[in-house]
Every structure is written in structure tokens, then in C-alpha cells.
Amino acid sequence: MASDGIPKRDLTLIALNLLKRLLLKFVKYYLPILILSVLAVLWLYKMEQEKLISLQQEELSNKKQLIVTLLKPMIANLYYWEQYGFVESDFDPDKNAHLDKKIGDFVIGMDSYSQFRLLDLSGKEVYRINRQDNGKIVKSLALQDKSNRDYYQETTGLKKNQIYLSPLNLNQENGILEFPYKPMIRGIAPIFDAQGTKLGTVVINFSAERFLELLKKDNLYSFILLDRFGNYLVSKDSIKEFSHLIPSSRDVTFQEEFPDLMDSLGRVATTSLWHKGDLWIKTELDFKTELAQTPLFQHKFADIRTNNKWILIKHLDSATLNARLQSEIFSIFLINLLAIAVILCLSYLEAKSDTSKRKYMLALENINKELESKRNELENKNNELATIQNKLELRNAQLLEYNNIVAHNLRAPTTSVSALVSMLKEAKDYEEAKSYFPKLQKVTRAINTLVDDLLIYVRILNDDDQIKMEHIGLESLITDTLDLYVETLDKETIEVKTDFSAWKEIKFSKIYLQSVIQNLISNAIKYRDPNRKSVIAIRTSWENHKKVLVVEDNGVGVDLSRYGNDIFKLYKRFHRGLSGKGMGLFLVKTQLESLNANIEVSSELGKGTAFKIIFDHYE
Amino acid sequence: MNNLSFLLIDDDEIFQFIMKNTIAEISPDIKIEFFTDGEKGIDFLKQNLGTALNLPDVILLDVNMPFMDGWEFLNEYKSLQTEIKKDISIYLLTSSNNPSDIAMAKEISELSGYLVKPISKEGIKNLIGHLPTSEWYHNPF
């Protein structure tokens, strides 16, 4: 950085300023983006959640629909077999072999059915077809007694056209859980003969394996299926599934795991709620309500007897949710980073252009300062010139004054001399001539006096450069001067008041100042008013930063409107009957002016006179 | 001419003496009186406003005088003029031949002329010869 006459301190200042401006501009531009980003995250988060909830609810609703859709054929099939027209002999295992073809074909076609059975009124199997694990359809000759099984006991009271659906549980063979576990739902319908006599029941085992697989499939989030008691039918934790049925597992229900949550979820059929940061979405499936709408035959609806009420839950834990949110925050963070980089660049450019502007202004200011100092220099020179001019003007006026004095005051006596001389020449006798001598003597004396006075005047004019300047203590100077008049002052009891509180000392010519003060005091005494007690006041003061000395009396005064112009002129006298040759004030003014001081007068007839000496630029 | 009366207002006593002698030489009948300043001259005029007999025909007026100078005297005279029962010719009589003084004098209608000192016997005779005149008079200098 070339320091174009800019001090190093200023450069540091500029750098600091640049940084400050950079930060300010950065904040100015970035803050709105930051706010928008935060708002965007919040808005996105909210939208995401709403979308998520509605999506999950839809998914649950789809699952529900899937269950219903898969179960509906069973209702229809049971109805079919209920209406099939079995006769009493069909419930005799020895006489019902003719059913093999019909039922076998049926089971082959329905691959989700794992068993087809007929039970007589006592609960004994009278007909049984199994679907083996390999998919083969085999008629079982080992018929079991199911009289002690809950599904038999639940269905003994079934009336015509009623269909029973069992809870989803695990298949048991001969009272023992089949392994691997086979989850299933049993659909049961009563069989009546043509006379309306109940013959037994038809039992179809609906294998829920595939159906549960379908429910478990494609779950981004944990899916839970509960029965009405809160037992797990589906859980991502497979150990919990059917734990209420498997003796070796620890029985655990949803209620036990999340008591307060179940409470809240239980109130409404379809709902979603937040619990400890987790999102829970729930819908209920009441078999009776959903399947009752299944049309059977000629607008007849199924009369479903079942306790089944399932609860479908989606559980989105906070970690998963946050992971989603984090990815969004991360993308917005990246956008912010990019914005920060761009804004920093822009701010830097802008602040730099500002700074160079300021630098330019600073340079301009320096030039201005230089110009100003040059101007001051010029002004000083001008002032000096003005001072010199004043002095020249003063000198000019003094010379003019000198000319006037010579012209008026010297011419008169010299012409008188020449007139007297010519009169002397023409004198008739000595007596006459002799009478002219005193006149001649008077004139020559006047000429002498005038020449002496002029010499004093000219000396002052010529002396002003060599005059000795010294520090003068005003008080002692004035005391000394007053001492010269001590007799007059005492005799006439003239009071002299002094006040030197404003200033006490001045650098000036002691001889001149003594002469000036002597003249002024002498005047004040000479022109005192005999009709009142005389007071002479001498005081110092400041006016416009200049030292001022005032000598004031309460004497007879002068009519300045008449004599204003002449009071400081040579041989001017204004008081009849009072001695004075009119030289004092003329000298005072000349002496003061020769040393750049001034004198002013103010006076009023009968009141008094005040002389004010103004010292220009005096220490 | 013989009964002319002069009034000289001038503080220079020697000049008064010279004028008295000069006038006496011209004619013993010419009266001349003196005052040493304008104030005394004005006071005299004021006291004799109505008595033309006591008033001079000619006033010779000096410029530089104490107490009241020639210009001031003319100012005072101006205010008295209507009351003065005599036509008085006033001439400035001064040692100044300064052109600015002469120009100033010409502006004053009460003045009849401008005389520069010294004035000789011939000069006074000349002046008397012109009296009474309405023309501006000044002696050669």
C-alpha cells in the first residue's frame, strides 16, 4: 500500500475500519439469510412432519385395508360352505369320503388356507384336509378332539348365518403348539341340515403367515400390530410377537411397556401423537365393523361374531426423525456456507471500495490542510503587509502633520520677521526702530520654541526603531509619576484611585510611557473642576484581547463635538484662562503611535475626560 | 474709504502689531480692531448686532486659532447674519496656501475672498481699492 502522504497510524486505522465495515456488511447481508434459513428449516420440519404423519396414516390405512381384503374371501368361503347343504352322514368320518374331491379342489385353489375341517357337535373332527409345508393337500386320517379348545367352545352357540372369526393365534396340533409357529385365524361357520338341525361346524384355518409378511414388508418405520389386549402380533422385536401364547417367552404387552402412551392413544380410533420426542401413529381395526360390510348373497351381509379388535401402530423414534431433520439442516447449512462465502467476498469488495474512497477523502483532507496552512501563511504575510501599510500610512500622516506644522506654524513667524524687518528698514528714527526690537525678539523666541518642539517630534518619528523596550511595572511607574505632583495633589486634595487588577506589567518604552502618563496626569490636574472634589482614576483592563490603560478624571471636560478632531493636534488649546501651549497631547499621541499603541478620548463638558490607551499586541 | 473700519481676528500678536502699523501708514482714518480668537470676535458681533456704527466693514479672519478657529467662526456668523444690520465683507487671512483650504473657502458664501499671509501694504491698498465688491477676491501669491 503506497502511503500517499498518509501517516502509518492512519493506515492501521484504515485496516481496522476495513475489518469493521467488512463485519458490518457481512452481518447486514447474512442476517436475513440466516433468519430465512432458520424459518425454512422450521417450516420444512413442520411440513415434513405433517406429510410424514399423513403418509404413515395412509400406510396404516392401507395395511388395514390389506387385512380386510385378505379376510373377506374367507367370510365368503365360510358362507359358501355353510350353504353347501351338508347332510348328517357327512359328519360321519366313514361316510364322508365323497367330499374329498370337492373340498380338496377348494383348498388347492385357496393357498392361504392351511386346514379345512368339519367338527361335529361334540367338538370332534369328522373331516380334515391339511396343506402341508411343501404345499401338498393331504386328507388327514388322524382326527382330533377339539372339544376343549376355545374356538370350539366359542362357537357352540353359533346360529344360522353367523360366522365366527378367532383371534390371531398359533396353530396347535393335539393340544401342542406347532413349531415353527404357525400364526393363524380360524373362521368357523355352523352347519345345519335341510331341516334346520345343527350338524356341526366348518372350520377353515386361515394361515396368517403371508399376511403378516405383507404387513411387515416395506416398513420404513417400526410397525406394531396389537390385539385388543395389547399383545404383540407384529413387532420389529420378534421375541415379543405372540409372547402371550408362547410359554417359554416372557409375556409382555404394549400397555405394560408404555402405560401412559396407550392411555392417550386409546381415546381416538385414528390418531397421532408425540411422546418423548417419538412420533406415534395409530389406527384401529375392528373386525366386526369392517367385515360386517362384506356382501354375501343378494345384499345379505355377514353376521360376524368376533372379539377381534386390532391396533395398528407406527412408531417413529426421535433418532430417526432427527436423522431426517439433520439431513435437511445439513443441506441448509451447506447453502448457508455458500452464502457466507459469497457474502464475505461481496462485503470485502464493497468495504474495500468504501475504504479506498475514505483513503481518497483522507488524501484530499491532507491536501486541504496543506492549502489551509498555505492560506494561513498568506494571511500572515498579508497581515504583515497590512501592519507595514498601517505603519506607512501612519508615517505618511505624521509627515503630513509635520508639513502642516511647518507650513502653518513656521510660516507665520517667518513672514512676521520679514514684515518687521521691512518696517525696521523704513523706520524714520531710532526710537521707532527700537520699538520693533521686542517684537522681533518675541517672534524669534516663538520660532525657537517651535523648532525645539519640532525637533522633539522629529526625534520621536525617527527613534521608533531604536527605542528601548522593557518590562515595566505599571504601579511603580505611576507612583513615581504621581510623586512629581505630590505637592499639588496634597494641597488640592485630589484623590487618585488606581486599579491594576487586569494586568500589572507591560513591555514598552519606559521613557515614552512615563511621558504619556505624566502628560495625562498633568492634564487631569490642570483641567480639574474647582467646584467639586477631584478624582483621578487610573485602571487597567482587557478589551478584545488587548491591554488597555484608562486615565479618567472628573474635570471640566472638552466639547468633543467641537474639538474632537483637534484634541491631539499641536498647539491646539480649548480652555481660555488655563495655561498650556498645546504640545502635551500631541506628543502623547505621537509617542504612542510610534510604538503601535493608540489613544482614544471620551469627554463631556462639565463631567470629565477619559483617555484610553490601547496597546496592540503587547506582552 | 477714509471711514473704513477693519476687524482683525488673529491670535498672532506680532501680526496684529504689523497690521496696525501697515494700516496706519495707509491712512490714519482707517480704524482697526483686534481679537485673538473667533470666540471673542463672535461675542463682539453678538453684542453689537443692531448698532451698525460699531460693526466693522471688513473682517480679516485667521484660520488657526485657539478656542474657536476661522471655520467655526464662519459657522457661528452664518447663524447671526440675518440679525446683523450691516453688510460686512469677510476675508480669510491665513499663512496656508493649501489648495484644499482655498477650495473649501470658495464654498462658503459668507466669504468675500482669500488672503495669504504675508500681506504687504500694497496688498491691503489693493484690497481697499476693490471695496465694496461682490466679486471673489484673492491677493496674488
From TrEMBL, chain A:
It is a multi-pass membrane protein. GO terms for biological process: osmosensory signaling via phosphorelay pathway. It comes from the Bacteria. Keywords: ATP-binding, Cell membrane, Coiled coil, Kinase, Membrane, Nucleotide-binding, Phosphoprotein, Transferase, Transmembrane, Transmembrane helix, Two-component regulatory system. GO terms for molecular function: ATP binding; phosphorelay response regulator activity; phosphorelay sensor kinase activity; protein kinase activator activity. The chain crosses the membrane at residues 26-45, 329-349. It catalyses: ATP + protein L-histidine = ADP + protein N-phospho-L-histidine. Its main location: membrane. SMART domains: HATPase_c (SM00387). Its EC number is 2.7.13.3. It is found in: Cell membrane. Residues 357-398 form a coiled coil. The keyword Oxidoreductase does not apply. PANTHER family: SENSOR HISTIDINE KINASE GLRK, TWO-COMPONENT HISTIDINE KINASE. This is histidine kinase.
UniProtKB/TrEMBL annotation, chain B:
Gene3D superfamilies: 3.40.50.2300. The modification 4-aspartylphosphate is found at residue 62. SMART domains: REC. SUPFAM superfamilies: CheY-like. GO terms for biological process: phosphorelay signal transduction system. Coiled coil: none annotated. Pfam families: Response_reg. Signal peptide: none annotated. Keywords: Phosphoprotein. Residues 5-132 form the Response regulatory domain. This is Response regulator receiver domain-containing protein. It comes from Arenibacter troitsensis.
